[in-house]
Specification:
Blueprint lengths: L1 H21 L1 E6 L3 H14 L2 E5 L13 E5 L6 H12 L3 E5 L13 H5 L1 E2 L11 E12 L5 H4 L6 E6 L7 E16 L2 E2 L6 E9 L6 E13 L2 E6 L5 H4 L2 H12 L5
Parallel strand pairs: 1-2, 1-3, 3-4, 4-12
Antiparallel strand pairs: 5-9, 6-8, 6-10, 7-8, 10-11, 11-12
């Protein structure tokens, strides 16, 4: 009898151990210094086994990954994009970072339609897509009650922010400043209210004093049976050296829809 009891007591523990070691994520990238910092955090704080792949060398089957991060600066091959899209739509969690939305990605078949994004760089465009290098911008939490923005995340400051979803008043919101990095403007949503916005970007032009605020720095949406996430920070290694930003990305993996 004692052996049987010991067997049934130990069995759940061994099952938990197997489950823990099975949790893994894939980082698809063509720049690795930034992703090395993120990988270390996911391993140390999330307990994930982190695997890495170039965009033209993806594993044949992505279904075994609890999350996939896309950090591709240059061209995103059509085959890679289609694999990532299928992974998300079939129930995976795809986290697109920084230049996963860029003018270069407009050349990738089906990518912008999947993201629900348009970038307008035509002459005289009302909302001309542009970027600024080597600046400080503020990541503003515009959805403070959400698990992804709040779980184990500390915000060192508060800033005044006016949502680009007008008309809106100016309010004080928690924020994280990111220095010597890159900021994007005028990501246009093409899927109406399909996205849940988590973060806004606040940027003050040092030369003109103009303050730009747009609800475009972080969002997610359901796609098929899975989820697509996007976060704008990531140009500099120092972006990921902010532990709270990495925690936000980790929260995308542990978040339970509906919570």
């Amino acid at each position: 009898m004692s052996r049987s009891i010991a067997f049934f007591v130990c069995l759940p523990c061994s099952c938990l151990a197997v489950q823990a070691t099975a949790e893994k994520v894939l980082i698809v990238a063509d720049e690795w210094p930034q992703m090395a910092v993120l990988a270390d955090y996911l391993q140390a704080q999330g307990g994930y086994d982190v695997e890495k792949a170039k965009p033209d060398e993806l594993p044949g089957d992505l279904t075994g990954y609890d999350g996939v991060f896309q950090f591709v600066h240059g061209a995103l091959p059509d085959a890679c994009a289609q694999q990532l899209i299928a992974y998300a739509q079939e129930g995976g969690r795809l986290v697109v970072l920084h230049h996963g939305i860029s003018s270069k990605k407009k050349e990738t078949q089906g990518w912008f339609a999947f993201l629900g994004i348009e970038l307008d760089r035509t002459d005289g465009a009302e909302h001309y897509y542009r970027w600024v290098h080597g600046v400080t911008f503020t990541l503003v939490n515009v959805n403070p009650g959400h698990y992804i923005t709040s779980h184990n995340v500390t915000y060192p400051r508060k800033v005044e922010y006016q949502s680009s979803d007008q008309p809106s008043p100016t309010v004080e919101l928690p924020a994280i400043a990111l220095a010597n990095t890159e900021v994007y403007f005028n990501h246009q949503f093409t899927d109406a209210r399909a996205k849940t916005v988590l973060f806004g970007v606040r940027y003050e032009d040092a030369k003109t004093g103009e303050v730009l605020m747009q609800d475009r720095a972080g969002w997610y949406k359901q796609t098929g049976r899975g989820y697509l996430f996007y976060f704008q920070p990531g140009h500099a290694v120092s972006d990921f050296e902010q532990a709270d930003y990495c925690q936000i990305l980790l929260n995308c993996l542990t978040w339970k829809p509906g919570s």
